[in-house]
């Protein structure tokens, strides 16, 4: 299918859904209906939820954070780890009680968890009070699915096996008026043996650069100062385009946009972090001083079983190259503990990488078996008591290094984008540095949305304390 035909299909589908939104708005008008969304998982899911919020708001729903007063409750689900799924099932039991008290309550489930056959069968059999189920490929069809539910009064299930169209130009309600995420690609081709993402989000498909740049221009004109480019592996952006374009070249184009002040991206796969991308990162002045580069395990043997396609030595060489080009960059990472077959020697290799790289922070996880992935049937599954012991030792090391990193900011000035009133102290505002470090500072709420010069006066393990200059 050519680019022109893809655009025509996307435009026609967006118009169709917008027409349905208008019809639903007429139906909903004056009823004071409320929706409540709970999002599980990654920033990709969070961005999908913003699209859902935008569509529901356009229909005439207002948002509430209290499920008990909602007329529509939606869970945007994650399936990367088992405990996320268990939380969903637990919450659905509670929602059954709410629905008994309010038979008009609509319950909807979407996201990655819904793409699994075993989950779908469980929902059909045990959770029949769920009204709408849809997946990751057809978020944009929410208006149509809701209209069908209203018209038939019967449960609506619409799960697609694969991606069809990228539909643009539908409503989107941002959490922050001054920063936004922008999807540059969908899906993943890497098939790490522990990960279910390629099975629930499909193969890689890149958005056309013209569409990405158009969206960012519109966001900047609407007051956005900071953009986060999103993809499961942004480093492989452009490979599916009719005219290939590298991620490095895309960053250079975004960096030219007038009015944009900050640019971030995630997530990067080490195997695709090219020399040209490192050069682009050093050249682009709007790119924030941080890089999230998951290494997952320090043992080359474990990395091979994970199908990560790099060695410990290659990862460390890559880090050295990044630091040589950008000496003060904040490196963050993901680490999995207790992967099948992991020995104490393998674990010590992971600890060695942490000691050598000295990450600014790390997301650490105990391996979670996911049905349908190769790792789930591997021999030598690690006992929980062993995994937890290793996890705790790793966490101690990560925090020790993180404290040193945070204390290095004390006495220095840094630019901070003030984002919101602190969740723990209404007298403070919270924001983030270019390195994505959380900062709390005493400032007037009128400063929210501004990038301000802050002097750092104190440091904790997970945040900094500062004062405005």
Essential attributes:
6-stranded parallel sheet; OB fold (Dihydrolipoamide Acetyltransferase, E2P); Rossmann fold; 469 residues; globular; alpha/beta; pyruvate-formate lyase- activating enzyme; 5-stranded mixed β-barrel
Protein topology:
Elements: H1 3-28, E1 34-39, H2 43-59, E2 62-63, E3 72-77, H3 82-101, E4 106-111, H4 117-126, E5 132-134, H5 142-152, E6 156-158, E7 179-183, E8 185-186, H6 197-201, E9 205-206, H7 209-221, E10 226-230, H8 247-255, E11 262-266, H9 275-283, E12 290-292, H10 300-306, H11 312-325, E13 330-337, H12 344-357, E14 361-366, H13 384-407, E15 413-421, E16 429-433, E17 438-442, E18 451-459, E19 464-468
Parallel strand pairs: 1-2, 1-3, 3-4, 4-5, 5-6, 7-10, 10-11, 12-13, 13-14, 17-19
Antiparallel strand pairs: 8-9, 15-16, 15-18, 16-17, 18-19
